[in-house]
Amino acid sequence: QSGPVQMPFLSFRGDQELRWANAWTDEAAARGVYLHPWHNWFLSAAHTDHDIDQALERTDEAFAAVRGQLGTP
Description:
Layout: H1 19-30, H2 49-70
Helix pairs in contact: 1-2
């Protein structure tokens, strides 16, 4: 993870072709969490604690789905 706290960005080690990034953001979007696979994301004061908790739960599900598809990076 890199970027300022309000603009995080996550990447996968060795994922030069963005295979993992694209698969993970696709799975997250399927769960209602929209993230860009190769640019920073933006948090806002409009995001509630509940919004963030939900997004983290759904991105955990996306990690599990990608791990099932692609294995471990």
